[in-house]
């Protein structure tokens, strides 16, 4: 398949009605990420009435004035209107019952979902991609107060910071640690210089980012689900194809031929241990609308979500009956039958885990690293593509970026199309896909 260059709305306009089976995409979040123009909601190619009126009156439609929510209101509405614009084209080219999965930012997700819904889609669910590697981007209120007062803060040591730049007396430019989107920048600890700064020491403006929501939307069915899947091949989710496996043989699910399943396994962090018994491995757990790429439920103490090890049972069927304080085991013959047939042990993370991106996914054979700051893990995109793409179907990514969907689909043998407006990213996506395919074709 191929990378198509240009604005996604214009490119999709050239695709036939009802020709795409699924869409999995990571559009801009409208947050102005790292100062990138493509993520600036004020510059997106769709203008709300308030912005048009401002322009007609000779005012800058994107100049923020005043205080409070109204100062940024039409920036956000611009993002929503822009979302609706590309989502309408996506709606037209999707087959009836076709699914759309789109990543969003925690601050603008509601605008993303509203724009998609206004384009005609029905919102089916919200998936949560959860990780432990996010880095806080918070204003230190105490430092801000001292800076405004022109007061110089005293350096009080560096604690346990290990940084060659600080060793040389230089400012730290950031250490990526495998992630260009969240570099760790070391700063020397300082003490508040004014009474006001001391009063607000320890206060900030933001929490650590640890999740990104994904909207799951569906183009309305033609008839019932059964009729739609038989007529168009769309409308349902591939549950068995994206189950969360319980053994080395079944986890991660939907693994592609070029990947080594054992190298992707999390035995070393006690997420999954082993399956009790013999015979064929169980198919894995039902996929949830929570997806982890770090074992965030590890550690802690037994019996509490967030820590400890649990055992899933011996692979037997038990019957249960309701009581005032919940469900308890009952004698055979009554109650509701519950099935617990995995017999594995580990932390709670094993119920939701799809592994994070290793550094090799950002690096070509010649050592060059991805220029894209928000590249998603291949295992995550593979999980989503498998979930919504029917056998023989074609999946589209209108915001291809670094080309992860192309890499995943080539490995899975799934037909795909990607659209990318920025030549820098389109070039990288083509090189990355070719580089990965060349590695797969090497014998052994």
Main β sheet profile = 8 strands, mixed
Rounded average pLDDT: 74
Q: What is the overall number of helices?
A: 11
The CATH topology of the domain at 2-133 and 209-241 and 357-440 is what? Rossmann fold
Radius of gyration: 25 Å
Q: For the record, give the distance between the C-alpha atoms at the N and C termini, rounded to a whole number.
A: 25 Å
Instruction: Give the overall shape, derived from the CA principal axes.
Output: elongated
The CATH homologous superfamily of the domain at 2-133 and 209-241 and 357-440 is termed: Vaccinia Virus protein VP39
Order of helices and strands: EHEHHEHEHEHEHEHEEEEEEHEHEH
Residue stretches low in confidence (pLDDT < 50, at least 5 long) are 32-39, 45-49, 60-74, 177-181, 248-279, 300-307, 314-341
CATH class of the domain at 2-133 and 209-241 and 357-440: Alpha Beta
- How much helix, percentage-wise, in residues? 10-25%
CATH architecture of the domain at 2-133 and 209-241 and 357-440: 3-Layer(aba) Sandwich
**Topology, number of strands:** 15
With strands numbered from the N-terminus, the spatial order across the biggest sheet is 1-15-14-2-3-7-4-8
Structural class: alpha/beta
In percent, how much strand structure appears in the residues?
A: 15-25%
What does the model show?
- The protein is an alpha/beta fold and 444 residues long.
- The chain has helices spanning 8-12, 49-56, 73-93, 109-118, 141-149, 164-167, 195-199, 225-232, 378-388, 404-412, 423-440, and strands at 2-5, 20-25, 94-103, 122-130, 154-155, 190-191, 211-218, 290-292, 310-311, 316-323, 326-329, 336-340, 345-346, 394-397, 415-420.
- Among the domains are: 2-133 and 209-241 and 357-440, Vaccinia Virus protein VP39 (Rossmann fold), CATH 3.40.50.150; 141-199, no CATH class.
- It has an eight-stranded mixed beta sheet with strand order 1-15-14-2-3-7-4-8, sandwiched between helices. Strands 11-10-12 form a three-stranded antiparallel beta sheet, with no helix packed on it.
- The protein has eleven helices and 15 strands.
- Helix 10 (404-412) packs parallel to helix 11.
- Helix content is 24%, strand content 17%.
- Helix 10 (404-412) links the parallel strand 14 and strand 15.
């Amino acid at each position: 398949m191929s990378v198509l260059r240009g604005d996604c709305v214009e490119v999709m306009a050239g695709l036939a009605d009802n020709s795409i089976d699924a869409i999995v995409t990571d559009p801009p979040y409208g947050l102005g990420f790292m100062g990138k123009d493509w993520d600036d909601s004020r510059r997106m190619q769709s203008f709300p009435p308030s912005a048009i009126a401002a322009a007609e009156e000779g005012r800058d439609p994107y100049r923020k004035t005043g205080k409070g929510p109204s100062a940024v209101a039409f920036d956000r509405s611009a993002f929503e209107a822009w979302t609706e614009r590309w989502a309408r084209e996506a709606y037209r080219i999707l087959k009836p019952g076709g699914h759309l999965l789109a990543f969003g930012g925690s601050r603008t997700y509601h605008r993303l979902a509203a724009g998609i819904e206004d384009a005609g889609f029905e919102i089916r669910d919200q998936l949560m991609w959860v990780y432990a590697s996010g880095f806080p981007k918070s204003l230190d209120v105490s430092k801000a107060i001292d800076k405004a007062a022109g007061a110089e803060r005293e350096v009080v040591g560096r604690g346990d910071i290990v940084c060659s730049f600080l060793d040389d007396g230089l400012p730290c430019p950031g250490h990526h640690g495998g992630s260009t989107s969240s570099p760790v920048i070391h700063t020397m600890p300082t003490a508040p210089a004014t009474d006001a700064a001391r009063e607000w020491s320890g206060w900030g403006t933001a929490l650590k980012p640890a999740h990104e929501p994904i909207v799951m939307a569906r183009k309305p069915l033609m008839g019932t689900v059964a009729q739609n899947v038989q007529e168009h091949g769309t409308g349902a989710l591939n549950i068995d194809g994206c189950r969360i496996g319980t053994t080395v043989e079944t986890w991660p699910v939907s693994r592609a031929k070029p990947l080594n399943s054992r190298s992707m396994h999390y035995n070393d962090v006690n997420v999954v241990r082993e399956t009790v018994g013999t015979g064929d491995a169980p198919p894995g757990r039902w996929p949830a609308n929570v997806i982890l790429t770090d074992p965030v439920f590890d550690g802690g103490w037994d019996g509490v979500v967030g820590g400890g090890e649990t055992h899933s049972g011996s692979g037997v069927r038990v019957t249960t009956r309701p009581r005032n304080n919940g469900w308890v085991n009952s004698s055979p013959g009554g109650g509701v039958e519950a099935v617990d047939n995995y017999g594995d042990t580990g932390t709670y993370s094993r119920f939701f885990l799809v592994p994070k991106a290793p550094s090799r996914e950002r690096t070509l054979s010649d050592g060059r690293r991805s220029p894209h700051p928000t590249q998603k893990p291949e295992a995550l995109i593979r999980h989503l593509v498998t979930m919504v793409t029917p056998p023989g179907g074609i999946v589209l990514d209108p915001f291809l970026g670094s080309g992860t969907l192309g890499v995943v689909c080539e490995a899975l043998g799934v037909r795909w199309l990607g659209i990318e407006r920025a030549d820098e990213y389109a070039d990288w996506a083509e090189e990355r896909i070719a580089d990965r395919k060349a590695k797969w074709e090497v014998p052994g």
